[in-house]
Amino acid sequence: MQLAMFNQRGIEAFEALIETARDNVDARKPALVDDAFFSAVDAIAVDPEMTTIVSHEIEIDAGLQFKDRFEMGEYLSENLPTDLAVVQHTNIGLWAWISAIYLRQLLEKPPKGGEWKLWSAYRYIPREYQKFRYYRHLAFMSFWLHRSFGEEVAKFFLSRPPYAHSDAIEQLYTQDRDFLASRGLMKAAVEMYIDPKTGTMKRNALGKATPGSARRLATKIAKQLQMNYDLYSMSKADIYALLPSEFDSWRPSSEKAPF
Known about the structure:
The chain has 2 domains: 1-151, no CATH class; 175-259, no CATH class. The chain contains 12 helices and 4 strands, in the order βαβαβααααβαααααα. It has helices spanning 8-21, 35-45, 69-79, 84-87, 92-101, 103-106, 138-149, 151-158, 167-173, 183-193, 214-226, 236-242; strands at 2-6, 31-33, 51-59, 116-118. The chain has a two-stranded antiparallel ribbon. Helix 7 runs antiparallel to helix 8. The longest helix is centred in the first third of the chain and has 14 residues, at 8-21.
C-alpha cells in the first residue's frame, strides 16, 4: 500500500468506530470486538474519501506480522519518511492510519480464540489534548524509540507484544531520559533485564525496591556514576566494571565480577 494518512473525515470515522465499540465500557477494562469491527476499520483505511496519500514513492506492507513492538518499530523507522514534520505524533492522520492498518496486531486476542481486546482510543489515535499521553500510542512509540535512540534503547523498551503497553516506558522513559544517551549503559541494561529466551523483560526488573533493578540503574546508580565518570563514552564492559554488587544477580555469567 502507498503510505497514506487519514483526513479529518477518516480520523473522525476511525474514532467513532472505537468509541462506539467502547460505549458503556469501564475505562479500566477493554471492549471486545470481532471481525466485523476490523472489516469496518479496513474499509475506511482504503477509502479515498477518507485518506490522503503521503508519498507515492513510499509503500507500507500491511500484511507484515511483527513478533513484538521492537520489530514493528524497526520496520516503521526504516520505511517512514525522514522528515520529522511528517512523522511527529502530532500528525494525527498518519498515526491513526498506521494504527488502523495494523490494528489486528495492536489488539490482544485470547490464545484459545475469541474476541479481541480494544482499549482507549489514545493507544491508536494521538490527540492534541492528550499530548502528555503520546507515549502510550503503541505504533508511534515503537517507531520513535527506534528512530530517535537506536537499537539498544528500542530493545530495552519494546521487548513486548505489539498490543502491550510498556511499563518501562511508563516508569522510566517519561521520568528521566539522561541514561538513554549512554550506549554502553543501555547495552548492559538489555543484557541484564531482557530474557534472551523469551525476548521480554525479566520478572521484577522494574521493581522499585528490588536490588539491582532497571529502575535503580536508571534513576539512582547512573546519576551517581555521572558525577565522576563520562558514561557516554564508556563501553558495556566499562559499565559492568563500575556497577556495585547489588547488580551481581542480574549480570550475565560472562560479566560476573572476578572478586
